[in-house]
Amino acid sequence: MSLLHVFVFGLKVGLLLWVLCCWVASMVSMNWFINGEFKDAKPSILGDTGSKMWFKFSNYSFRIHHQYYQYVGSKRISKTWWRKLLFSWVIGWVLASVLIFCYMSSQATEKRKETLASMCDERARMLQDQFNISMNHIQAISILISTFHHGKNLSAIDQRTFAKYAERTAFERPLTSGVAYAVRVFHSEREQFEKQQGWTIKRMDTLEQDPVHKDDYNPDLFDPSPIQEEYAPVIFAQDVVSHVVSIDMLSGKEDSKNVLRARKSGKGVLTAPFRLLKTNRLGVILTFAVYKRGLPSNATPNERIQATDGYLGGVFDIESLVKKLLQQLASKQTILVNVLDTTNQSYPISMYGSNASDDGLEHVSHLNFGDPFRKHEMRCRFKQKPPWPWLAITTSIGILVIVLLVGHIFNATVNRIAMVEDDCHKMMKLKKQAEAAGVAKSQFLATVSHEIRTPMNGVLGMLHMLMDTDLDVTQLDYVRTAQASGKALVALINEVLDQAKIESGKLELEEVQCDLRAVLDDVLSLFSGKVQDKGVEVINLYHTDSPYLPGPFFLLSWTLHTVFSHESKIYSILQLAVYISDQVPEVLIGDPGRFRQIIINLMGNSIKFTEKGHILVTVHLVEEMIGSIEGETESSSKNTLSGFPVAERCQSWKEFRTFSQEGSMHPFSDSINLIVSVEDTGEGIPLEAQSGVFTPFMQVDPSIYRTHGGTGIGLSISKCLVNLMKGEIGFVSIPKIGSTFTFTAVFTSSSSSSKKYKIQKINNRSNSVSTEFHGMRALVMDHRPARAKVAKYHLQRLGIHVEIVSKWERGLFIISKGVNAINMVLIEQEVWDKGLNGSAHFFDNLNKINRGTPPKVFLLSNSISSSRANTTISSVCNLTVIPKPLRATMLAASLQRAMGDGNKGNPCNGELPRASLQNLLMGRKILIVDDNNVNLKVAAGALKKYGADVVTAARGIEAIELLTPPHQFDACFMDIQMPEIDGFEATRRIREIEQNINDHIHFGEVSVEAYNNVSNWHVAILAMTADVIQATHEECVRCGMDGYVSKPYEAEQLYREVSRFFQ
Amino acid sequence: MEVVQIQRNLVDYTKSLFMEGFLDGQFLQLQQLQDESNPDFVAEVVSLFFDDSQKLLNELTIALDQPIVDFKKVDAHVHQLKGSSSSIGAQKVKNACIAFRNFCEVQNIEGCLTCLQQVKLEYYLAKNKFETLFRLEQQIVASGGSIPMIEMGF
Fold it and tell me: Nearest residue on chain A to B42, judged by CA atoms?
């Protein structure tokens, strides 16, 4: 029981200590913190880690400690401080546990003492009671004697009667071993008395001198009593003590004292303990005086002496008495009892018990046996030594252990905290270093890329020049390779710069109006070159143009080359195509540049890994795709653009949130969720590498790099960009079959907020393309629906109604019997190659049909294979080859040439940037603003060369005046760095003025006629800057510029920027 | 001297200018801009450059001579000079200007003065080179030849 008790107690104490120490610690540290706050107003930002494990159960202390560990300035001090605290803590609790031990053991002793006292008192009381009972009875006998012996003339009691009576009433007096009665006899009566009794009065002295021989005891041996004034011979005695009959009690020294005292006081009087005759045990004799009758209770001692008749004595055998008594009581073994007569204080007489003196615990109880003269006491001791105070010992040890443990925990915690703090400091330092390194890296990248770009421009320009000199084929090849590498390097620098920006979170998306169709056309034209290049590599065909030149010039010239070379024998089998659902609005608001970048990345990858088949980019609304998920699966497996199997694209967006939570799809009414897929039939991504596809610098394996180049950064950039567009990116890839990457992006509908965004003249482009062919009808002959769909899409963009047929006969039927005249027939290359006979028949019949002008016939050619077709069809007039990939502008140009003028059916070689620029800029009125005369003159010269009508201004304020509507300017080239009003500021002001006027016109406050019938003023402003870093570009966009050209002018860039505005 | 020889000299001289880094591609671009409708374009631009630059250099000299130098102003001048020199392709002048601007940024007067001297030196060198170039061209024109163009394609 006690063990359990101790345990529980220990637990409680432990908890108490814990709480206590927490409190102390928190108070202390609060003070610390407050003090520290005054010392240092800027607490460091450390502390999340340091206080993590610290006293979680107490919010208060947690907070305090949290704050405390924010203050780390004086770590060293706090450490020593903690040590001291810990030390004093341990010392204090050791002392406390000693105190507890003392207290508890004293408690135990006290309790023991109490127990002893109560036991002792109990015994004493019992003894006293018993004694009193016996005494009373003896008194009763005395009364009996006075009544029946002295009261009657003839005594009714003789020795025998007395002995018998006494014997039979012995049970009433358990403490007496015998009773005897001695009568008072004066000397005068002695003789008569002796005669009457038949014995002489004997004296006791000799008996006392030689008391020991019990068995040989013979009263006859006593001497007769000497002559005295009075005698007190025993006349009656209980049988046990019958040997005292005839002995004069007054002759014994002790007895006579007793007797005299008894008759004087009239009360029971006790002798000092002495050895009893015969039994040789310790005993006392109680003496009562028997008086004559009629003695008043308040009689004087003299009267009492006079009235005395005799003396009744009872022998108390104290030893056996006490023994008997103790035996009746419980726990008799545990204590030792001594009964002492202490009448003589300095020399107490032991009446019972061993005299072994013990310095242990003792309790003394006074006994009152009715004799005021005699004093008795009972001394009790425990038999056993006091037990060890185990409770106290265990408790204090337990407390000590707990305290030491707590101390240990404290110590460990403090050490740990110190360690963590140190670590944290290190971490902070490292973090700062890392951050500094990161900043340095970004700066380095920005600087270096800028610095690299500048010399690279020189390198590229020189290479360009070099290519125009007279070189042989090998040299040309070298130069071309060098230039390609240079361009790749610049592209790489841009990518790295992008990645750095994304990492630092500085990349922000533009919000401008854009036409995805145009963007995708651009991308397609960019890649068509690469695809051709790939084809060339495969079939080892020479051609002498740069594969990197984007745009129609290269393509056309290259096609021309092959068309007329009649040399090519092998098919190129990689097709590029774009399809945009007509549900996608013409104009969206978003970041076309970044969208383009994503597409370029994805397509670039596809092209790298695809040798044959096709790469198809499709754009749909998310809403469309949700409806068609089920239908998609069955059709797509066979019915692909090139007939090659592809990876199911719907697999790639299965994980997308947009699809899983359809409810959340329309957060804003004007947001447009696009889903874009790039599908290829390449070698696919190995399963084990699929998980890391979007990790930066991750490539399937190093050999890929050697085969295909690239940094592996593109996809990770794409993913970031897609995330910025609030979309998701996913892919599905089956090795040897192909990959399909799909991403979603959220654009904004332009209709709702068109006024807020600047209007680019993008619309003009498609409009100008479309008007010419509007309402025409076309027949597309293709047995692959997917491919026909792409062709249809592009033709429809030009406003042409399209019908698709798969067979020659059906085509003929429609041409001849159809309700509306067909203006053009577009025949897929594959169809053409397959059915040469059919085609011959077709053409025969086509010429026969005479419904107005016969339809023009076009061949949709996969570029390289066109030559083969060409050989066959060269005889057939009226056939124009349209190289794929199809793009609206290309298609329009081809159609235009064919439809407008048959002789110009073949593209001429002059469509170089300069020529295009000339076309674009001819007759345009352009303002150039630059504070530098030389620059102004050079720029003006450059633009004049392309036929532009140039006005110059040297200051920003002039530009603002000139560009305040109404004006005739088509565009403005604005230097950024100018005194007084710089380019940004000037543009901002111009835009404000324009906005103001547009608003006025819009609300009808000003008539449109006053502003040349232009209701929406927005002059194209292009920044001129030598600074090509992105930040400048962003600043340009922010203040309302439409783009920028770098100084000095590069025709290609100029063309690219200008072509966005003038079509 | 035969016209052909002068033409060759001109080409060699131009090449040497490129090799030595006096000129860069921009000059070729400039030449591209010159055609029948604007026969003296390059010469006009270059002389405009020298006039402008002379003024700027004078102003720079005065500005740097002040007890308290207005570095903003100096920087603006140097920027002008850099812009125009890069427009005509006077590469060495441009590079000197870049160094000059760096000193301007840290407001180092010593460096600025050194750079000014450097720019002046480059300026005069360039002026000499251009004058020689134009003299050769004029000789060719006077001899009835055509000025050979170093073709620069885009």
Answer: A938
Does B30 contact A931 at a Cβ distance shorter than 8 Å? no
Q: Is the dihedral of CA A948, A954, A958, A963 positive or negative?
A: positive
Task: Tell which residue, A958, A597, A592, has the closest CA to residue A758.
Answer: A592
Domain ranges of chain B: 3-34+41-141
DSSP letters for A386-421: PPP-HHHHHHHHHHHHHHHHHHHHHHHHHHHHHHHH
Homologous superfamily assigned to B3-34+41-141:
HPT domain (1.20.120.160)
- The answer to whether the A777-899 and A925-1060 domains have the same CATH topology is yes
Q: Which residues of chain A have pLDDT under 50?
A: 1, 33-73, 208-216, 536-572, 630-637, 662-667, 706, 753-770, 864-877, 901-912
CA–CA gap between residue A369 and residue A243 (Å, rounded): 27
- Report how far apart, in Å, the C-alpha atoms of B134 and of each of A36, A807, B18, B36, B41 are: 78, 70, 16, 17, 12
Q: Is the minimum CB–CB distance between B143 and chain A shorter than 8 Å? A: no
CA Rg value for chain B: 17
Q: Measured between alpha carbons, how far is A123 from A335 in angstroms, rounded to an integer?
A: 11
H-helix or E-strand spanning residue A913: helix A913-921
Q: How far apart are CA A923 and CA A918, in angstroms?
A: 9
User: CB-CB: which of B35, B49, B76 is closest to A934?
Assistant: B49
Residue A874's pLDDT is 43
For domain A390-490, give the CATH number: 1.20.58
How close does chain A come to B142, measured CA to CA in Å?
25
Does any CB of chain A come closer than 8 Å to the CB of residue B39? Answer: no
Integer Cα distance of A1022 and A1045 in angstroms: 7
- Write the CB contacts of A972 (distance below 8 Å, at least 6 apart in sequence): A926, A927, A928, A929, A959, A963, A990, A1019, A1020, A1021, A1022
Q: Quick check: A461 and B25 CB within 8 A?
A: yes
CA A588, A589, A593, A595 torsion: positive or negative?
negative
CATH T-level fold of A925-1060: Rossmann fold (3.40.50)
Between CA A842 and CA A781 the distance in angstroms is 12
CATH topology of domain A777-899: Rossmann fold (3.40.50)
pLDDT given for residue A972 in this prediction: 86
Q: Return the closest-CA partner of residue A710 out of A550, A612, A602, A593.
A: A602
8 A C-beta contact, residue A232 and residue A184: yes
Q: Are A182 and A310 in contact (CB under 8 A)?
A: yes
In this prediction, residue A429 carries a pLDDT of 92
Across A151-199, the runs of DSSP E, i.e. the strands, are 176-183, 185-186
Contact B102/A at CB under 8 A? no
Residue with tokens 């060198």, as numbered in its chain: B125
Q: What is the 3-state secondary structure (H, E, C) of A326-337?
A: HHHCCCCCCEEE
On chain A, the residues whose CB falls within 8 A of the CB of B90 are none
Which one has a higher pLDDT value, B125 or A212? B125
The CATH code of domain A509-547+572-627+641-655+669-749 reads: 3.30.565.10
> What residues have CB less than 8 Å from A828, skipping those under 6 apart?
A780, A781, A782, A783, A784, A787, A788, A791, A860
How remote is the C-alpha of B92 from its chain's centroid? 8
What's the confidence (pLDDT) of residue A206? 52
CATH ID of A119-382, from 3.40.50.970, 1.20.1640.10, 3.40.190.10, 3.30.450.350: 3.30.450.350
Helix (H/G/I), strand (E/B), else coil: A922: coil
> So what's the pLDDT on residue A708?
53
Length in residues, chain A: 1063
Query: What's the gap between Cα A695 and its chain centre?
Result: 25
DSSP state, A931?
A: S
CA neighbor of A679 nearest in space, from A769, A605, A573: A605
The pLDDT of residue B42 is above 50: yes
